Amino acid sequence: LSPKNPSALVDKSIWKYHPTTHIPSSQEKYGKIRKKISLTVAHVAQLMVAKGLADSIDDAFDRFLGKNKPAYVEKHRVPMIDAIAVIKSAGGVAVLAHPYLNDVADIDNFEPFLLTLKEMGLEGIEAVYPEHPEAATARYCQLALKHNLLITGGTDFHGAVTPGIQMGIGAGNFHVPYSFYERLMARLEQ
């Protein structure tokens, strides 16, 4: 393993390691649990920290795994209409996650976009999210109420890779109201 070239860790796919890095393959490291969980780039970041290539998970993303970094792998994107259809066919509630971070931050053009998604079957919007500016959160809540959409929230909890963040409780004093969960569950029971 060469700390001089940790970006050699990934070759076009998160789980295809270069043979010269001596980093355990996903099969060696995660093979037994891979069928039980979805492995993500965060697991690669954990492995980089464990192997001394990065000082922390944030460091791994900042220097290697984040967008436009040497080991970045583009995510597979599913068309929204297909994603909404799959969620609904599985009995779920389709919610637009953290819209401010998903290239729909232009509040003036957001409402027509939201209405298009609602026509496709969208039922809610993650209006409350730690990285949303207050004005965006207020606007998302207003639009959700106006168009009879659920207001949901998220803390960016991703298990052990997000220490200090729990489901419903984020960093600092950020929290998602329990009433959001209750309304979501009520919608599922309809």
Helix and strand layout, with pairings?
Elements: H1 26-30, H2 41-50, H3 57-65, H4 80-89, E1 95-96, H5 107-120, E2 124-128, H6 134-146, E3 150-153, H7 178-189
Parallel strand pairs: 1-2, 2-3
Helix pairs in contact: 2-3
Explain what you see.
- The protein is built from 7 helices and 3 strands; from the N terminus they run ααααβαβαβα.
- The chain has helices spanning 26-30, 41-50, 57-65, 80-89, 107-120, 134-146, 178-189; strands spanning 95-96, 124-128, 150-153.
- The model is unreliable at 1-28 and 30-34 (pLDDT under 50).
- The radius of gyration is 19 Å and the shape is globular.
- Strand 1 (95-96), helix 5 and strand 2 form a beta-alpha-beta unit.
- 22% of the residues are buried.
- Strands 1-2-3 form a 3-stranded parallel sheet.
Gyration radius over CA: 19 Å
Q: Termini separation (Å)?
A: 54 Å
Major sheet, described briefly? Answer: 3 strands, parallel
Widest sheet, order of strands: 1-2-3
Task: Give me a quick take on this structure.
With 190 residues, the chain is mainly alpha-helical.
Feature tags:
7 helices, 38% helix
